[in-house]
Amino acid sequence: MKYGQLGNSGLIVSKLAFGAMTFGSGNIPSVYKVGQDQAQKLVDLALDAGINFFDTADGYADGQSEEILGRLLGARRKETVIATKVGFRVDTGLVQAGLSRKHLFSACEASLARLNTDYIDLYIVHKTDPFTPLEETLEALGDLVRQGKVRYIGYSNWPAWMAAHAVQMQRERKWATFINGQMYYSLVGRDIEHDTVPFMKASGVGLTVWSPLAGGFLSGKYTRDNLSDPNNRLSGFDFFPHDKEWGFTVLDTIRDIAQNHGATPAQVSFAWLLTQPHVCSVLVGSSKVSQLEDNLKASELQLTTEEIAALEQLTRPAPLYPNWFTDMTLDSQVAEALK
Prior knowledge:
Elements: E1 3-5, E2 12-14, E3 16-19, E4 24-25, E5 33-34, H1 36-48, E6 53-55, H2 64-73, E7 81-86, H3 101-115, E8 120-125, H4 134-146, E9 150-156, H5 160-172, E10 178-184, H6 196-203, E11 206-210, H7 233-236, H8 244-261, H9 265-274, E12 279-285, H10 289-296, H11 305-315, H12 323-328, H13 332-337
Parallel strand pairs: 3-6, 3-12, 6-7, 7-8, 8-9, 9-10, 10-11, 11-12
Antiparallel strand pairs: 1-2, 4-5
């Protein structure tokens, strides 16, 4: 297992992280489907493979994911990094959701109890909250850090402009600063390269990746023929908006590369992400031991320069304005002189 720092912090995390979203049972049976016995096997396998970074959220299976993960890490909790998230609705009360000071404080206490820990290593705001002033959210997060209940803070699914504004405000007011942005990123979903990745590079915020297989699409088990099968996961849990026909064209290339290495499409998809210098860690979510074993092998897969270039060219997102204008008007004479 390889390791690195999370953003501009001293927090050392494994390049592959374990995502515990599948732990528990609930209203999305295609996602929440792993009981404690199976979860124990998955956590043990992850630890044995050198994974020290575990991710969950209070909204996963009504908190069951946190409970199971906290119970299973047990005595090894101190050698691991636990990230959990807050923001989605956890009960029926109006104030039992969002990023208000009230909810952040109560949600943090509840997560600490479910995880059976005195502190959360990385506390992530799970989504934006248009009903709460940004200043209120950021000050409350800073207070949780000062109180020792949280060590580091991050965000997930925020637009680049909001994250940039937040980091500027945190630095100006000497509040705890985001070290991490957890974002969706895959070979069929590279939208964050437009603005989020440049912001992260400039600010020192570290990128962790959720759903690196686009909800399982890049695992290779789906075809043009079985995609609409009502029994598969994507039929019941597919909110990734990529064009599926184009996605299958990408998969054809991924399968060719996988065959060259005696690997699987999932391993190639993970391996490509691990070649990206702006990626700190990639979440691996599994419901089966065989699936996790397969995905873990991605850390050993070395793609060739030609293979990386082929995937890059095939999946590169079309530039958006003003990015294309910036590229088009670059002074070539100065660029050449500074090579």
